[in-house]
Amino acid sequence: IIRNFMKNGKKIETIRDIRGRQDFDQNTVFKQKDFLRIAGEKLSFEQLENRAVTVSPPNAPNIKDVRVLFALSKGCNTCSVLLDEAYREKKLEVQLNEITRLSMRIPSMVSNDHVNKITGLNQSFKWNKSIFDQTQIGGIAPFMQIYGILRTYDTITYLPFDWSLNDVL
């Protein structure tokens, strides 16, 4: 985003304005391997995200830590909030809990329509459903309860995803 913030003399409005080598769905900036170099290996943002969620919490080996999904915001309006400090090994457990709890309170992440008894979830829950199912907690609803969403309904809808960039302060 920073590298491509200005395009043709104007600020980009959405991540989709940063085209990959083809169209957005086929070869996005998230899939391009030449964007990141980590430990000498070229990775795409998508590969980094996929590897990060395979990390197990210290108290539950072989279980995926879905909280990492909230720490890896894509910089869009409907993504999780950004933590205002660097993630640190000694504080990681507290930081992951904090970013998850804060993100779950955003209406674009989770919203309940109590009149019609419908829970609206961010598209990221749909995209990562298999990861939530593989957690020690065992699914999206129990996970949400741990992080303050005490009520969910049997009818689930997925909220529209807004790829517009977060505001820059």
Helix percent reads 25-40%
What is the approximate shape? globular
Please give the alpha-carbon distance between the first and last residues. 15 Å
Order of helices and strands: EEEEHHHEEHHHE
Radius of gyration: 17 Å
Describe, in short, the structure shown:
The protein has 169 residues and is an alpha+beta fold. It has six helices and seven strands.
Lay out the secondary structure.
Elements: E1 6-7, E2 10-11, E3 36-38, E4 41-43, H1 45-52, H2 67-71, H3 92-104, E5 110-113, E6 118-121, H4 123-127, H5 129-133, H6 140-146, E7 155-158
Parallel strand pairs: 6-7
Antiparallel strand pairs: 1-2, 3-4, 5-6
Description of the molecule:
The chain is of the alpha+beta class. It has helices at 45-52, 67-71, 92-104, 123-127, 129-133, 140-146; strands at 6-7, 10-11, 36-38, 41-43, 110-113, 118-121, 155-158. A 3-stranded mixed sheet has the order 5-6-7. β3 (36-38) and β4 (41-43) form a beta hairpin.
Key attributes of the depicted protein:
169 residues, three-stranded mixed sheet, two-stranded antiparallel sheet, globular
